[in-house]
Structures are given as structure tokens and as C-alpha cells.
Amino acid sequence: MTDHTSTLTKPMSHVRAAQWLIGIASALLAIALLGNVGIVFALLIGLMLTGMPISISLGLTVLTFLFFLTKVPTEAVALKLFTGIEKFEIMAIPFFILAGSFLTHGGVARRMINFATSMVGHWHGGLGLAGVIACALFAAVSGSSPATVVAIGSIVLPAMVKAGFPKRFGAGVITTSGSLGILIPPSIPMVIYAVATNSSVGALFMAGVVPGLVLAFLLGLVTWFRARKNNYPRMAKATWRQRAKALRESIWGLLLIVIVLGDIYSGLFTPTEAAAVSAVYAFIIAVFVYKDMPLKSVPKVLLSSANMSAMLLYIITNAVLFSFLMAHEQIPQMMADWVIAHNLGVVMFLLFVNLLLLLAGNVMEPSSIILILAPILFPVAMKLGIDPVHFGILITVNMEVGMCHPPVGLNLYVASGITKMGITELTVSVLPWLLTMLLFMFVVTYWPALSLWLPRAMGMM
Length: 461
Fold this sequence. Notes:
The chain is mainly α.
């Protein structure tokens, strides 16, 4: 996924320059507005701009803050280091990562694509529409956006090019549709938000269902419209026998959606327990049912999942300490008091949050953004009477958009590795779908009922 050809060098240099400019501007603004605390944010941004991993950048920033800019007792920090990450919900993260790894390597994605293609392949842009549907289905079992792009994109994109679709069209469809992986539950960023703000994981998962389906429909609509406008290829209509066969072959993967979400919403499992069950189920269907993964490949999958989980947990640990120090310096309270004193109100605050998160998306990846900014913005939102679940969905949608725009949109880099296209070319390719996502983001922001209707109807709020 990280192997870029030499043709990417020039676009990447422009991306790096833009990232530096945005980072320097953000750092100077932080210092001007927040004084000593602004210095901490400037240090964090500066370390990340050097290419240092976010986990190390956060750790060094926390140490600088602790020893030079605050008088927090070391004992309190040590205690927070352990109590901040002992939450049961955190265990859901490595289990969902492991389940996603088994599903990515286990042939589930291919069968979901075959099923989606049998249903909509005869429509305008049928393969593209099948990609959108397959991304939505895979999102409901993986919880990860990059995993969705890899699993679906590596199969659909070559098929679309072979069928006569322009590469740019296919790249735009899969790059943006892959972002459904963090909105349609289960969702790793939602778990991280819940951990950072003490919100309900189950309510967040339920709240993501309707917005996720609406966004999938909108992305499919853009795909269909552009395919119809440009007269892109259509496939022969599948018979009902072929559709039944595709459903029968994909049913084991589709059942995971029912098992994970059904058990959570019925109260049979907690989200963490459901994540553990999904990992075991994904292992069984990949190795023993579909038999697409030999047993000798299992240790490699376990190791890669452990590496990713360790990285995320280390980021969470440092972010918990960072948030604790921010709270000790009363930064969230100062922000809330300032917003209320200036009568900015909910509308202007949410606009500010959207702009801040989009700006942060230019220099950080979603997990880091949520862990650093959610504990700071959350108390302000609560003082303004914003529902915590609605606020979580708003942040998640912002993270979706951030994964699809430069300079550090993770989906762009994953898609670049699959398509061998430069980041600049990919950015142009995703524009129609990205603009749709931005419009959807503002609908989610100012229409809370879209997110809250289903969890309220199910009695989870």
C-alpha cells in the first residue's frame, strides 16, 4: 500500500509543501491564542511535520508539557496513565482490527462484490454501483476505512478498468465509498470517541446506521449520474438464479453483520464482546468455511493486527495524558466560557468545529484527531446542549471527509498504491463525490434528527 512509483514524487512534494504551510499557520495561530498551551500545540504540530510518528510526537509533547509548562504532580500523571486506558471498551479496537484483517484476506470481499454486482450490475455504471454497495456491506463487518478500500478496491478497480471504465472514475468511487468503513457500524473511530468522551458505544453504532445508509445512497447516486451522463459500460442483467447463487456464496460474510450489530442492539453482547465474537467468526469463515486463507497465513495476520493495535493503543495512552493535562490547565472550560460569553451559539460553534476538524485533517489521521480534540471540544458542546451522540457522528463524518482529501487523506494513499495514480490526479478524481460528502456533512451537522432518530426509537437514549 505504501509503494509509490517515481511518478508520484512531484505531486508528493507539492503535498508536503502544503502540509508544512498549513502546519506552520496552525502552530502560529495556536501560540497567538493560547499562550503556553499554544506552545504545546505548536510543538506537537512541528514534530508531526518532521515526519515523526504521531505516537512519538504526542509522547514528547506530553513530557515537555509535564516538566516545563505545568505543575501537575507526577503521581497524578502516573495514576492517569493506568486508569485512563483500563476501560473495557478499548478492548473492542484490537478485536475489530483482527476481524477486519481476516475478512480482508479471507475472500469475503470478493463474494460481497459478486452479490452486489448481480443486483445492480445492469444499471448505468453497474460495476461502480456494485463497488459502493460492497463498500457499505464490508464497512458493516470491518470497522475500518482503509481496510474497506483495500479489500474492495483491489478487486473492483481492475475489473472496472478491464470493463472499459476510466481509471479516474473507478478511483473516485472506491476512495470515497471506502470511507463508509468508519460511519456504518461497527466503527473503530466511534469506539475511540466513546473512550475519549465516556459516551455510549452502542448508541453511537445505532446512530451511524441511518447517516451511513444515506451517504451510501448519495455516493451511489453520483456514481449512477456520472455513468449515465458519460454512457459508461453496463453489464448483462443477472438472472434470479445467478443472484440466488451469489447470495448463497456471500451469506456467511453477510451473517456477520447480523451477528455483530444484532447482538449489540438486542443487548446480548456489549460492543467489546461482539468485537471478540466477530474476530472468532471471521477466522472460522476465512479458514474453514471459504478456505481462502491457509492456516500457515494466520500467524502473519495475527502479527500485523497486533502491530496496528499496539500503535493505536500507544497513541491512546499518550492522548489520554495529553487530554488530562489540557483539563488540568482548564482549556476546555476556558473555551466553553469564551463561546458562551461571546454568544456564539450552537450554529457558529458547530461551524467552527467543522472548520477545525477539516483543518486538522490536513496534518493528522482520524484516530489522533479524535483523541486530541474530542476531549477539548466535548465539554463546550455539552455546555451548549449539543447531544453527545450527535456530536460523535458529526466528528465521524468529518473524519470521513478528511480521509478523502489531501494532503494526508489516508484513503488517497491507499488508493494510490492500488491504482498507481498520483495524489494530485486522485484528488481531482474524487472531487464530485467529495463535494457530495461535504454537503452531507453540513446536513448531519445541522439536522441532529438524522443521527438521533434511530437510537431514540430503539430506546438507547
